[in-house]
């Protein structure tokens, strides 16, 4: 059976502040809804395992489809209460890894060596690396077995600098996705702020912002079902 590994954050606040953040629910729930529709199995992982906080700002952008997933006991238990730890995961079980967003990921995704090792193994076995919005943070520093940045020479997208300005977080986040992507050799592509957009370049499938989840799954599902 085809299976996807979904990555959630454990970060509860913008670091150095009392402003809460966490997982942007829709970026996970919409993805899960598409996996269920396609009959694709999935697991949830986070850097520490266990509890996943929700970004309160993201809860303002829910709809019926998102809430239907959020109300599923299995989603709450496996995705928000008891996510797997990296040591619980066998990369050989997965055809793809998907990094969700929410600003929290900018602090616990980029340099997590354990999840990087899982993603590298999935990539090396021909699997797909995917992300949406700030989830690109999980791919920005990922290197292949030769020590080269996986995104180097590839088209990718993620939450843009303009979107960070509009969100009022440009001076709060530890880095800007566009800048780091360019520094590490990627071709960062984008559309207008807060418009749905996703791009595939080989085994990389990335989406620009919270409204791009289904654009990601439209590319990823056919790829992993081949």
Automatic annotation (TrEMBL):
One GO-annotated biological process of the protein: methylglyoxal catabolic process to D-lactate via S-lactoyl-glutathione
One GO MF term: glyoxalase III activity
Single GO cellular component term: cytoplasm
Pfam families found in the cross-reference section: DJ-1_PfpI (PF01965)
Domain of life of the native organism: Bacteria
Keywords: Lyase, Stress response
DJ-1/PfpI domain residues: 31-213
Family: Belongs to the peptidase C56 family. HSP31-like subfamily.
Protein name: DJ-1/PfpI domain-containing protein
Organism field: Latilactobacillus sakei subsp. sakei (strain 23K) (Lactobacillus sakei subsp. sakei)
Species classification: Bacteria, Bacillati, Bacillota, Bacilli, Lactobacillales
